[in-house]
Each structure stands twice: as structure tokens, then as C-alpha cells.
Amino acid sequence: MNTEVYQHPEEFVLESGKKITGLEIGYHTYGRLNKHRDNVVWVCHALTANSDVFDWWKGYFGEGSFFNPDEHFIVCANILGSPYGTTNPLSTNPTTGAPYYLSFPQFTVRDIVKAHQVLAASLGIDDIHILIGGSLGGQQAMEWSIDQPERIKNLILIATNAKHSPWGIAFNESQRLAITSDRTFYANTPQGGAKGLKAARSFALLSYRNYKTYAITQQEENADLTDNFKASSYQNYQGEKLVKRFNAYSYWYLTKVMDSHDTGRGRKGVEKALSTIKAKTLVIGIRSDVLFPLEEQQYLFQHIPKAAFAELDSFYGHDGFLIETEALTNITTSFFKTDVKGKIIELQQSA
Question: Does domain 4-163+262-347 have CATH number 3.30.530.20?
Fold first, then answer.
């Protein structure tokens, strides 16, 4: 399925007050809006994903999956700043006729959500039956549910947080240091910062997985080996893979976006902001996640009024939310069979 592109006819005003002219938003839709207009599932994607959720969340979304086009009208929009169809640092600046590169205005999670809201209006979508996202996607879904609480009926937040942690910001800054140490990043060319991006991806993988993941998947069988280890080649391979499909400028800006995430900003604090969420909410944490530790999801569960909590047991760490689709399906099935009147302490992975 090809990416569709919405062209916004008005200036898009960012949280900072800066403006983007000619905003374009790439998106995918699957299925059809039913006559009651109450079958919308909106997916907010994470850092380097795209709007083709049937491609990167197979087993959870797709034909025959829990979220399928026969029952649901599924929408996933490419986020602002990402290079898969939405305006980003490599897009042409209408003022100069050249790509933005580092002149692209900085933006926040709230700006990404505002772009989603613009797209939803263009698609004639009023209420959203289920809003779902993991990691940066969860940050977006949370912001939307706080900004428009009456509109979101059910909310699924996976491996995410109410405010990005100093730990997460430190990981992101380390990646940006890697990118900016590549002098070509300042050359303003489409491939600028490519070597730095490769190194940044290597840093990121250490936060997406963990000690046990590498011990199992990258263990050497040859005890005589002194160089060229599996773990080394894996880091190089994953770095090169991202360089081929992404760019350093989008990555640099989007890590800044994650750092900006604070649901309490301008809302009298995080707890006050979370208390305004009216959606029936499922919070899922991953036991082995070192980037978004379990206590961050437990905090969400404790402060969102109609919340249920489930713990996902996965040795894949943070990336478990993309891989453990059978467990996610079981948890989600259990959640929608439950009438959340107060708080539910735990949902099981198996139905």
C-alpha cells in the first residue's frame, strides 16, 4: 500500500511560535470507517518507524491480527520531521528553495500531535476508538489524550513515560554527540552526518536491548576467536541499515523531540495532566526495558484515572513491544474484556 500525502493549506504554527509553510503529512489507512464512525484505531509510531504499521507491527496489526482492516479503520501518520512522507529537514524550504537541513525549526511531541489532529480533521474523523503507541509513539498518544480527552475513548500506552527521563536524554545526547562529531553533518547534503548516524544507531541499540539479549543472540561458539565478533558485526550492520533508510538530520531533531516530552509543561505538573485523561487506558511495561524502566509505566498506571496495567516479560528489552506480538495480543484481548471502573492491578500475558 502506497503512502498517501495530505497537504495542509494553512501555515502550521509550532509550540515555539515558529511556522512551517506547506506542511505535508504522509499517512496510511487500512479498512473503512463504519456507519457509526466508531471503529477508528489510530497508531502513533516510534522514532525511526513509518506510517506503514502493517509492515513493522506484523502479528499485532494486519489481516487476521487483533487490529485488522475487516473490523477497524486503522490510521497511521508519519510524524513531523521523519523522512517518510511528512515535512522534515530534507524537505524544501519554500522561502529559500533549498532543503532546510539545520534551519528546520525545532519542534516537540505536542507539535507532532497537532499535525495528527490536522490530518484527522481532513479525514473527517471525530472520535478515536483506540489510540495506541509505544515509546515515542506512546508519548504522542498520551499528549493527544490530555489535549483532547473527550475525543479518545480507549488508550494503549506501551513502554513509554509521562516525562522523558534524564537517563533517556543522556542516551539521546550521546547519539547527537556521535552525529555532530561527523563534520559532514554541517555540510548540508542529504548524506551529511552518515558516519555519525551509524555510530548513533550503535549507541541506541544498547538501550533498545540489554545484556541478556546480546548474551543470547550474539554469543560466540568459537572460543579461539580474538577479533571480528558477532556483536561487533551486528552493531555495524544495524548502523549501516539505518543509514540506508534514514538521515542524520531527521534523527538529530527527533531525539530532541523525545527530550522535550513533559506532559506537565504548562499544565500544573505531570500528575495534574495525567489526571485529565478520560480514556479507558491500558499501560504495558516491559520487565527488561532499560530505556523506559518499568517504574515509568507503573507511574502512569498510578496517575491515569481509568487505567489497567500489564507487565510484558521479554528478554528483548525495549524492542520487545515490536517483537512480542502474541503476548501483546493476549494482553489487549484481556483488557477489552474488562470493565475498568477503578484500577486493575494486573493483566496476564496469556488469555
Answer: no
